[in-house]
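Can anyone check this?
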Amino acid sequence: MRQIKYKLLLSFLVLWMISIVTIIVYVNRYFEGYYQQELETIVQTIGRNASQALRFPLFHSDYNQMEKIVRPLVQKDFSYVIIFDHRLKSVAFVEDVGGLLKDLKYQKEHLSNNETVHQVKYNLRDFNEYHFPIKFVSDLEPSGCVVIGISAGLIKEKLDRVRNRIALVGIISFFISAALIYFFASLITAPLKKLSAGISNFSSGNYDQRVNVKSRDEVGELAQSFNQMAETISKQFKDIEKYSKELEIMVENRTEALVKTMQELNQKEKELLKKEKLEGLRNLVNSISHEINNPLTIIYGNLQFLKAKGTKEEIERRLPQIETSIERINNLLKDMMFFSSLREITMNSFSAAVVIDDLIKKNIPAKINVKVEDSINELIFANEIMMAMVFKNILDNSVQELEKASAANPEIQVELRKEKDKYHFVFRDNGPGAAQPEKVFEPFFTTHPEKRGLGLTYVSYIVDLHDGKIEARNLQPGFEIRLIIPKLI
């Protein structure tokens, strides 16, 4: 609030200085002309009256009477008054106010028929000298002359005195006004201080804070508005606290109910998962039973036939069928053992491009053209052995489809790229595709009845272990499998 006081004082000082300068300029312009005109009027009036009144005393050379007439007419602004007697060529009267006319003698140049004004110098000082001739008859030569001398700097001295008085009055009025302004500014800022302190306390959290300002001006209205606002906000905060407590109670009650519901849902989910696992296990067992039953039936039938008609030719003809069926059962059991061993995985860094390139060299026939586009250019973090099995199964599936279709220009395209924080592995071939691409990852689904197994099922399961995603779709023409594996490091 001190800044308000200082601003008021500074504003007053500026206005005061402007007023003083304006008054001084006005005095210089107005009073200078006014004093000059007034002084000349006085001089001319006194000079003319004196020249008329001194005709007879001068005619009789009665200098005493002349002095009695002239002395009362002398003004304080006159520097000197002289009466010359031209008949006797002498000085009849001298009133030397400033002691300037020592050894004054008669001067012939003062003889003049008309009123004149001369500029003279006495003791290095300039004077305006007014001459008024004394005539007995108007048409005769003057018998004497009244000379009134006035200092040329008189008006300037008067103006200087006026300016000094104005400055003195201005300085005194300045300090008095400054004190009054400071006093009234204190009266203005006192309620503002109260209002500022109240607002500060209110903003600090004291919502019961009110401001006691009883003035009937704008500050009082502002304080009243603040008190009304504070009352409204305080009431709102109390309502909020009340609602908050009620809300906490409601949340606690809802939380208890939600926890209970979640527990029930978890229990039902466990039961549902248990049912789904049992159903899945039942389907898997049925599928495995069916897959094992077919080769066993072949083996059993061939053995019964050989037992009844076990000729050498029949043994040589049926023995390969028995070996093939036993190999199918053996491969199926190996797949089941591997499938059951997938529990936990160990991650390591390796180059996917190197693994895929090695698999292509070892497993892809030369007649199939393979194109690999790698834009990853970094090591990926995953289980190298499992990912190699994934890549091998997908490539083997493409080779089988291409060989089955006997395509004229069989081709496999492999694309490796990184998008943000995920790796994309895309395998495409120009084979016939799958009749039901959405089922290729189901156990024992195949388009080759003689090669049924869990190959792509392994692929889906391993991708799930890596928190990834696998998709399959038909192209025009061809087939595509897309793997999306998250970047772990």
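Reply from J.R.: I decoded it. The first strand starts at residue 80 and ends at 85.
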